[in-house]
Design the sequence.
């Protein structure tokens, strides 16, 4: 996930400026099942500080222990962790632990890539053979640049684990009442970039929305200046029917996978009917992206519970999953 990488890389930059070494731990292979899948990463600083996690908590202690060898030798190692007897996950994790001290060019390229909201590639080379353990390393591909995470040169004759990192997920919340604050708080805790759009006459600011990335007090016409992509969701919750209709109208034709509407089904139907009267050339595909009432049926009542319900629905939509009890799923959790 990009938000985890941001924490890892930005923390490493700060540590590096203070002369503190960092190592990167990446799950590059898995036999069986585990709490998380290959591609998850964390970092360890030589002062013992850990950023991120690759499991529910048990594996990290062993990673911390084996990271000491990497700090001492400045060479990578492949850690094998058998969770069948310790975690009950029936899987064996292979974790590449390597020195992590990128150049300033790397840090600048990473931030530029994040700002561009474009995907990028991470290639990690490793070997399960003991004789080749210290040859593993990773490199990031930002557009046409290949940048290593340290001075270790990738040995491209080894086994390759390649991962595409998508841009951060963005949630645009149109509204600024108490329930919008709760949705913002929970979404930001999930690692999403949260943008608050409020009516121009509201006397509020970004300080009223913990975790928000940006706050805009604008009218609906100014939504045209926003960028939308497949990693964007919008929830309209201004508590004003007229305003909701105006903001919804401006979203027609935009590249959005999810548009949530607060309020009951009757209100949604009235909104859509009035929308069609204003613009009868709207494609069927646009209506398929509208979810109202927003959220899945979990019996939510409080603003906090409603926020959880909405976030769960957005996740199910963007990952093309039908919400069910996991106990009723006939195949593995991650399949």
Sequence:
């Amino acid at each position: 996930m990009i938000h985890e990488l941001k924490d890892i890389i930005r923390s490493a930059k700060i540590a590096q400026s203070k002369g503190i070494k960092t190592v990167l731990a990446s799950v590059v292979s898995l036999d069986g099942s585990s709490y998380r899948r290959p591609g998850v990463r964390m970092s360890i600083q030589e002062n013992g500080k850990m950023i991120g996690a690759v499991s529910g908590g048990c594996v990290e202690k062993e990673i911390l222990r084996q990271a000491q060898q990497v700090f001492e030798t400045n060479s990578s190692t492949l850690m094998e962790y058998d969770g069948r007897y310790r975690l009950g996950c029936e899987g064996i994790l292979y974790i590449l632990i390597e020195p992590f001290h990128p150049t300033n060019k790397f840090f600048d390229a990473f931030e530029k890539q994040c700002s561009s909201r474009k995907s990028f590639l991470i290639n990690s080379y490793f070997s399960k053979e003991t004789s080749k353990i210290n040859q593993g390393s990773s490199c990031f591909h930002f557009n046409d640049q290949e940048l290593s995470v340290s001075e270790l040169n990738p040995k491209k004759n080894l086994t390759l684990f390649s991962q595409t990192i998508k841009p951060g997920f963005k949630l645009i919340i149109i509204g600024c009442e108490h329930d919008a604050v709760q949705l913002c708080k929970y979404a930001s805790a999930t690692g999403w970039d949260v943008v608050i759009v409020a009516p121009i006459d509201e006397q509020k600011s970004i300080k009223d929305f913990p975790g928000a990335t940006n706050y805009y007090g604008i009218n609906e016409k100014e939504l045209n200046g926003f960028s939308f992509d497949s990693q964007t969701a919008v929830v309209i919750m201004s508590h004003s029917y007229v305003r909701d209709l105006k903001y919804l109208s401006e979203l027609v034709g935009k590249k959005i996978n999810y548009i949530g509407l607060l309020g009951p089904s009757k209100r949604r139907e009235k909104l859509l009917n009035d929308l069609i009267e204003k613009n009868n050339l709207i494609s069927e595909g646009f209506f398929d992206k509208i979810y109202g009432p927003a959220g899945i049926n979990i019996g939510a009542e409080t603003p906090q519970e409603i926020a959880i319900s909405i976030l769960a629905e957005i996740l199910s939509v963007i990952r093309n999953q039908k919400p069910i009890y996991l106990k009723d799923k006939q195949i593995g959790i991650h399949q």
User: Anything to note?
Assistant: The chain has a mean pLDDT of 89.
